[in-house]
User: Which sequence fits this backbone?
């Protein structure tokens, strides 16, 4: 049965507005009631249509009473998270104050401000440009150094919202990398945090909800390393930490594992230092165990294996020390996932090209039969690739 949103009248919203506007009765109680109503989409629209409503709310947000400030911030948070951009964007006049209060003493108040900024950053390019001009990157950098975990989590969320923008690579990432992350050591702190969390996972010392912190931090690092400027500054010790996080959350929070694999891909593409470290830390077995998983997990794993294989003969030979790699590739070639099949053939080609002995090992593991089975695949690209590999490496074994 369809669940309907509770109803609210314009009169109810107007009466609450008058109470908070004129300070009649208990203004704090009125703000509390308004905050509860503002989770309703209809109430949000009714409130922002009232004359000067947002300016009155911002006035309370800048009040010298901490309890009133916090409750007004919660109202702004509800509005900033509205599905209707015409509602959420009314919060824009508050941005200078939001940024100013990020350096305040109250961790709870700072956290609220950060989530409002993150919600606004997701809206449109004009909003992000305004926030950038107002110095949002530098402000978020300071919050990422907070001793309060909830503040760090909220700052990472806001930064991740900025970095997901289409224009992020050209306009936002360079500023974050050069002006904030690198110069103030935030990237180092983010990496250090993930390494510490990885060790805590290995020791069984983590608590429920830690993935809410991990996800935005990993997303931020993934976006930053995609630009290549920040990659040289990342400690290779991050790799085993990400591996532990992937294994921990794959059954219950696969989205966290996907983010970690995406970051690993960004770190290893064209980077021999990270590819070598991946093998040094013996993380390939962890990858191979992920091959049967779908939802983008398998394709990210195969892309990562391809990044390592592209480094040449030395690293390919080390990959071959894991005999189960051909079994994993054959499993991928038998799947109905076209992209997984294509990537498996690409990884196979790189290994066969760089290591002459790989042909014998592949054939001994019944790989030729798996390759023959897709020579006539309905997907032309896959068929061409399979036939190419058969003709080039296994012509004498063809049936």
Assistant:
């Amino acid at each position: 049965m369809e669940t309907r949103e509770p109803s609210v009248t314009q009169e109810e919203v107007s009466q609450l507005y008058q109470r908070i506007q004129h300070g009649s009765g208990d203004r704090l109680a009125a703000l509390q009631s308004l905050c509860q109503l503002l989770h309703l989409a209809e109430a949000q629209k009714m409130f922002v249509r009232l004359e000067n409503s947002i300016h009155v709310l911002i006035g309370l947000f800048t009040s010298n009473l901490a309890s009133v400030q916090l409750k007004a911030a919660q109202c702004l948070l509800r509005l900033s998270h509205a599905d209707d951009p015409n509602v959420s964007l009314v919060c824009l006049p508050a941005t200078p104050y939001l940024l100013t209060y990020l350096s305040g003493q109250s961790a709870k108040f700072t956290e609220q401000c950060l989530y409002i900024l993150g919600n606004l950053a997701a809206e449109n390019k004009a909003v992000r440009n305004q926030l950038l001009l107002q110095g949002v990157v530098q402000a978020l950098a300071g919050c990422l150094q907070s001793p309060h975990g909830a503040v760090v989590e909220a700052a990472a969320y806001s930064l991740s919202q900025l970095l997901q923008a289409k224009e992020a690579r050209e306009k936002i990432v360079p500023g974050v990398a050069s002006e904030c992350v690198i110069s103030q050591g935030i990237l180092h702190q983010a990496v250090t945090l993930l390494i510490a969390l990885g060790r805590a996972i290995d020791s069984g010392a983590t608590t429920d909800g830690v993935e809410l912190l991990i996800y935005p931090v990993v997303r931020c690092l993934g976006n930053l390393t995609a630009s290549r400027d920040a990659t040289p500054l990342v400690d290779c010790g991050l790799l085993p930490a990400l591996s532990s996080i992937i294994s921990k959350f794959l059954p219950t929070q696969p989205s966290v594992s996907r983010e970690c694999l995406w970051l690993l891909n960004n770190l290893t593409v064209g980077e021999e230092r990270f590819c070598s470290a991946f093998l040094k830390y013996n993380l390939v077995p962890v990858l191979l165990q992920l091959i049967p998983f779908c939802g983008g997990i398998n394709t990210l794993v195969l892309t990562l294996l391809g990044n390592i294989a592209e480094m040449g003969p030395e690293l390919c030979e080390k990959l071959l020390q894991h005999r189960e790699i051909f079994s994993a590739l054959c499993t991928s070639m038998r799947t109905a996932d076209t992209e997984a099949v294509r990537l498996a053939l690409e990884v196979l080609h790189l290994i066969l090209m760089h290591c002459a002995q790989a042909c014998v090992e592949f054939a001994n593991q019944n790989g030729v039969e798996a390759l023959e089975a897709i020579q006539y695949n309905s997907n032309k690209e896959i068929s061409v690739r399979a036939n190419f590999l058969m003709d080039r490496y296994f012509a004498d074994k063809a049936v």
